[in-house]
Design goal:
single chain; about 260 residues; alpha/beta; 8 strands; binds 1,3-dihydroxyacetonephosphate
Length: about 260
């Protein structure tokens, strides 16, 4: 089956509202040159305080709300309550989000997120009608010890545990080797494709062949305009989760342009 590519920009903890607005306008004006059919699915994950603004520009910019989706960078699995500093799926949806990134290695590493928490978040996101972008990835030590596949397979099994095949099919996974994030060191495309194929086979085991065929699996880690064509030419890479290069309209737009050259 042909899977529509996703190019997602994870802005992490960057950009004040005025800066987010300027960047987003630079992206949306570029997208207005194309139809939604020509474009990959474009997703932007700003900080919480800019979600509403980015969403309203997306709806009113004339490029059509259907070309741009907004994502949260995290959420809590409960719908409300005494969880200071957290945000619920319903709140993200209310602000205009369609996707939520969960299990990013920075959250696992700096905020002690566990596989169990990520599974609860994935279930809450799907129950709330949004789409989880579930991140996984190995450390350099794990790669050098030859345990990449075992580690990633276990992260994926845990994240998808107890989720119906139908919900798995609409979810998104992002394979982000930790050693490639923010380092300028991109994972070799053929190797990223090999790991992503392995992830697809784990999805097939837990949710069936049809869900494995439908689920979109992205690569993330130092994606640049110069790397995306080769990455998108691989059989199983369905798009990219972009950090640093999504913070400038020129580089993000070029990533979208180069994606369209090979695979929309
Ligand atoms: P970089 O593209 O800056 O390496 O970040 C990748 C990432 O963590 C996206 O979620």
């Amino acid at each position: 089956m042909s899977r529509k590519p996703i190019i997602a920009g994870n802005w992490k903890m960057n950009l004040l509202q005025s800066e987010a607005k300027a960047l987003f306008e630079g992206i949306s004006s570029y997208l207005s040159n194309y139809t939604a059919v020509q474009l990959p699915t474009v997703v932007i994950a700003p900080v919480f305080t800019s979600i509403n603004q980015v969403h309203s520009i997306a709806c009113n910019c004339g490029c059509g709300g259907n070309k741009l989706s907004v994502a949260g960078q995290n959420c809590h699995w409960e719908s409300s309550g005494a969880y200071t500093g957290e945000i619920s799926v319903e709140m993200l949806k209310d602000a205009g989000c369609e996707y939520v990134i969960i299990g990013h290695s920075e959250r696992r590493q700096y905020f002690s997120e566990t596989d169990e928490m990520i599974n609860k978040k994935a279930k809450a996101i799907l129950a709330g009608g949004l789409i989880p972008i579930i991140c996984c990835g190995e450390t350099l030590e794990q790669r050098e010890a030859g345990s990449t596949d075992v580690h990633i397979a276990s992260q994926i099994r845990a994240a998808l545990s107890g989720i119906s095949s139908e919900d798995v099919a609409k979810s998104v996974i992002a394979y982000e080797p930790i050693w490639a994030i923010g380092t300028g060191k991109t994972c070799d495309s053929a190797e990223a494709n090999r790991v992503i194929k392995m992830i697809r086979s784990v999805v097939s085991e837990v949710a069936g062949a049809s869900a494995a065929d439908s689920i979109r699996i992205l690569y993330g880690g130092s994606v640049k305009p110069s790397t995306i064509e080769e990455q998108m030419s691989q059989s199983d890479i369905d798009g990219a989760l972009v950090g640093g290069a999504s913070l400038k309209a020129d580089s993000f737009n070029e990533i979208i342009a180069n994606t369209m050259k090979v695979s929309v």
